[in-house]
DNA sequence: TATGAATGAGTGTTCATTCAT
DNA sequence: CATGAATGAACACTCATTCAT
């Protein structure tokens, strides 16, 4: 059995080596520029061996991207669990997401690339796990009554991930490192405007009392006809 | 002179034909998949002729993308000018942007592709004109006192374009046509939360006076029995 | 008539401009690398105009090479005529030839190139005029009794031009500027060995005195019997 | 081990086939005219395979030329070793060289072509081995006292190879097969004029008679002791 | 004569993938 | 499972030459 285990371990190790070599290669120049021959050499396996683990170059590419998103998801879960307040969780998640996008921008671009070039929609699937972390935060906020139940989760995602993606991309395009704190602040203001509509000014008292007072006066007024 | 004009017109026509053929070709499968030979054939010119107008395939590609953004910019300016209220301008621009992204999504992807694959930063430049339309709306809103002057334009762009881009992309990824109205609504809520912070509760005088008026009303109303 | 002359002059000027531009272009990178478009631009004519003067690129190339050899021939005739002694004429011609080969090595290579690549043997024809200068020197030397009549002119050419060509080429290959004087000296020694067999031993003095001395020794020796 | 050997043999065979096919192709029309596709087909390998053995077309070309010079060198060494007298070695080498140039003139032209077109100086390197055979003959002649030590080897090479190259080229240009014996004779006369200065004026008669006279006088002298 | 825009044939090289060993 | 030599399809770009003006 130890032999079987050893064999399995060897396989796992080899797969890991391939994945790492491939990640490095794809990061350097994208799907097209990476050479299977170089990946094989870096992983210290023969070219043919790559095809024992992955059907083709694209499959290897997808595996790399998938693994990346899995890493991200785990990291996101970790930082989210460190907080209890949904609002803080949201803010923490935003910071984490922005940092990761900025740090591994190449891999995010690869995801876009995959979505663009690929016939498969695997990219969407990959992000799914990550998006669920976000959805979880929203859900918890709702069940705790901190967030309004009326906001559509899909739209919230658009706001959240769209803004962060775009902010990261334009920052990178301008060569800036990050102005993370400010964008996070702005994003939170925007998010909370949707998640907690008029939450703080909603002291319903004034309105209700006004309604009631007017209603009563109207009743009186009817009793005393004008004139 | 009519001869000169004719020549120029011929050149312009030929360039237009090339550009159209190229747009079609690039839209079909991106930069890589498009074949110069096919573009030439579709434009009814010889392959060599393409190179009289554009240095190489990539230059032709960039020209296609640039023209697309120019079209967009013009369209955006038009819809914005049709409104006078900055808030409505913003909303109109959002709708227009979303529609165009959804409609020409391939060309948006090509822009991303360009940003990803290209060594040139042309992509950013192309968008610039379009972004300026947005900036113009914000600026007008500020100068009219409708928007707060404190919001950073860059961050606003991130919110605006990021959300729209992402919404379009994810809608397309899910195969949906569009849920435009709802995302626009959400986006506007978010934007205004940043652009008009506590706009309605602002000027506490109103609230206080309202409070006082209600109190007096209540006092009066209580003097007259409910029945 | 002055108008006709003007026209002719214009044509001649244009042809000259083309030839000069072409020479420069071919010198830079040979037949293949030169671009008709660049030649046209340098000559300040349209591309099509080149073809009014020369059937095609190769014909232009040949014209350039031919003109070069004509220049050389004229120069050779000049230096040869400056001397009267055939031996000195030979030496002068050798120096001149070597200098020109070294100086315009590119054009010599082009001649070789023409011989190699071209289907026409034009190259040989071009050199003909130059070779005739050499033949003339030899002929004069013979008729003056300075050179032996028995040497085959063709073989002499092989010796003369072959050595000079090769010397120049190998010097250039080694990046040396020239060791001209020594090669000229050696070549002359070799040439004269063929053209003036036993030429230098013709200092009869030494031989005669030696002959006389031996004769006297023999006379003495004979007086004393061998045994 | 026999398997390994088999593999190596296969590789060697394949390389040989490529080299032969390439030689044939390059001989037909030079570097430019030869088509990699045709070479591959002739060698019965795929086009890509050519690039497993040679970096590119030019490298293949150089390999062909290099092999040619290696062949020549071996042949030259053989004929030289068949003689012992340096003068005869020189003459034999001249004949061999002339024959080979005439026979494989295309490959010689290719060498020139390489020198002309190539950025690399490989051509010179290739000839080096061959030239050394010549240098060896000269050196031996010197150490045996047959050749004068004063002649510069470089100049001798110019004379030897230059004359032979040129003779072959002009003979080929004139369509003649060869007038080898006469040119060899002339060349040897010229070479020896440089290598054995005053060789022929050594009219052995005088020397011999001097020797004899002195010998006889010595004999007489012994009979008549001094005093 | 002169122009110069248009032509379009022609080819070296790469690299993902396979398969005999 | 592993190897790595062999495959071969695929394609942008150049540039001498032409011809309508």
From TrEMBL, chains A, B, C, D:
InterPro entries: Homeodomain-like_sf, HTH-type_TetR-like_transc_reg, HTH_TetR, Tet_transcr_reg_TetR-rel_C_sf, Tscrpt_reg_YsiA_C. SUPFAM superfamilies: Homeodomain-like, Tetracyclin repressor-like, C-terminal domain. Pfam families: TetR_C_4 (PF08359), TetR_N (PF00440). GO terms for molecular function: DNA-binding transcription factor activity; transcription cis-regulatory region binding. This is TetR/AcrR family transcriptional regulator. Residues 12-72 form the HTH tetR-type domain. It comes from Parvularcula maris. Residues 35-54 bind DNA. PROSITE patterns: HTH_TETR_2. Keywords: DNA-binding, Transcription, Transcription regulation. The lineage of its organism: Bacteria, Pseudomonadati, Pseudomonadota, Alphaproteobacteria, Parvularculales.
